């Protein structure tokens, strides 16, 4: 006999958790499958009342008992919290859908993008499913569609990442820097020293000023001069698309945008690909929107995309001097499809098992 599963949102009061509650309220296709929706957060947030699906729900403190009776638990919390609590949720009978980086490269945990590998949602020996990093996710719907048609072999990516990817502190820092230089038209010139004008960088989540600047360092520094964000693009793309030998090189840049990541993608395929064919495939992809008429100023930008669910693609062109290769520009809201939305879509796949 079918029943409606119980869903828990862990980290309901955080930045991504807030977006998740909005999605569960506005996207009935992703929330109608559930009976109870339980909200869980740290003990300091316990007792708060939040609205989801038009109902007031009291936030419960994170504890093993909070998962009793839960069928699916979505985790929108830091890595260390997920690493401890997702296995506990799974041990209490829930399928844990984790938005952190704690399990992404675990061979016993599937890394799922429903547009690319939905079948992997059932392959969960640890009872955990992982959600990819927001930068990788911003291009996966588009790249998955193109890969199915022409066979992806190489990716060279430059990301332009919004400050909200660094958490709540990111936008707060950018706004503080904007206020510090506002009205001073010498800023960014020889006569205006941005580094001296902005608040102390020791208090910033970024290694350099963001205002009137770009910072070619997103994530933590790893071996060989690569950053954690760049390595995530490589490793996660391989796992999601099922191409273990995919050649990937990424440069991740932080830019003064609040929300929505952008990527310039140089993609090489096994078979000959045309711009017209790529547009047709992307137009047919249900979660991709093609905005590609540069002669009339039509292409995606973060200002157009923020707050929306699809992946937007434009500036599609045949790469000069590179056979079987396309260059394109991709934008996706890093808090929605890049985090909360994809997690909700994975949970929705699991919920169909109860129907």
Write a structural description.
The chain has about 350 residues and is of the alpha/beta class. It has 10 helices and 14 strands. The chain has a 6-stranded parallel β-sheet with strand order 5-2-1-6-7-8, sandwiched between helices. Strands 10-9-11-14-13-12 form a 6-stranded mixed β-sheet. The protein is globular, with a radius of gyration of 21 Å. About 45% of the residues are buried. The model has no long low-confidence stretch (mean pLDDT about 95). This is Aspartate-semialdehyde dehydrogenase.
Low-confidence stretches: none
Helical coverage, percent range: 25-40%
Head-to-tail CA distance between termini: 8 Å
Number of helices: 10
What's the pLDDT, averaged over the residues? 96
Rg computed from alpha carbons, rounded to a whole number of angstroms: 21 Å
Active site: 134 (acyl-thioester intermediate), 261 (proton acceptor)
Catalytic activity: L-aspartate 4-semialdehyde + phosphate + NADP(+) = 4-phospho-L-aspartate + NADPH + H(+)
GO molecular function, one term: aspartate-semialdehyde dehydrogenase activity
Pfam families: Semialdhyde_dh, Semialdhyde_dhC
């Amino acid at each position: 006999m079918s029943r409606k599963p119980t869903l828990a949102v862990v980290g309901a009061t955080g930045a991504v958790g807030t977006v998740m509650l909005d999605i569960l309220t506005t996207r009935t296709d992703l929330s109608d499958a559930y009976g109870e929706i339980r909200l869980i957060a740290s003990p300091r947030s316990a007792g708060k009342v939040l609205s989801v699906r038009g109902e007031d729900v009291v936030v419960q403190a994170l504890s093993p008992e909070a998962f009793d009776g839960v069928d699916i638990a979505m985790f929108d919390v830091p890595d260390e919290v997920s690493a401890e609590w997702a296995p506990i949720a799974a041990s209490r009978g829930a399928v844990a859908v984790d938005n952190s980086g704690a399990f992404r490269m675990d061979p016993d945990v599937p890394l799922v993008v429903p547009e690319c590998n939905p079948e992997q949602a059932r392959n969960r020996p640890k009872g955990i499913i992982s959600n990819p990093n927001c930068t990788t996710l911003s291009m996966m719907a588009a790249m998955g569609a193109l890969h199915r048609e022409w066979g992806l072999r190489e990716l060279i990516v430059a990301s332009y990442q919004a400050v909200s990817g660094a958490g709540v502190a990111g936008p707060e820092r950018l706004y503080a820097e904007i206020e510090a230089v506002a009205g001073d038209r010498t800023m960014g010139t020889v006569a205006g020293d941005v580094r001296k004008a902005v608040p102390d960088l020791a208090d910033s989540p970024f290694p350099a000023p963001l205002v009137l600047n770009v910072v070619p360092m997103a994530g933590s520094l790893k071996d060989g001069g690569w950053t954690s964000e760049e390595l995530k693009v490589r490793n996660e793309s391989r796992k999601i698309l099922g191409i273990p030998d995919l050649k990937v090189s990424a440069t991740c840049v932080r830019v003064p945008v609040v929300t929505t990541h952008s990527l310039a993608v140089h993609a090489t395929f096994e078979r000959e690909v045309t711009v017209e064919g790529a547009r047709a495939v992307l137009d047919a992809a249900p979660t991709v929107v093609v905005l590609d008429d540069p002669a009339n100023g039509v292409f995606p930008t973060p200002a157009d995309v923020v707050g929306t669910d699809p992946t937007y693609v434009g500036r599609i062109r045949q790469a000069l001097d590179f056979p079987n290769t396309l260059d394109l520009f991709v934008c996706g809201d890093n808090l929605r499809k890049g985090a909360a939305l994809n997690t909700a879509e994975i949970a929705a796949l699991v919920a169909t098992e109860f129907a």
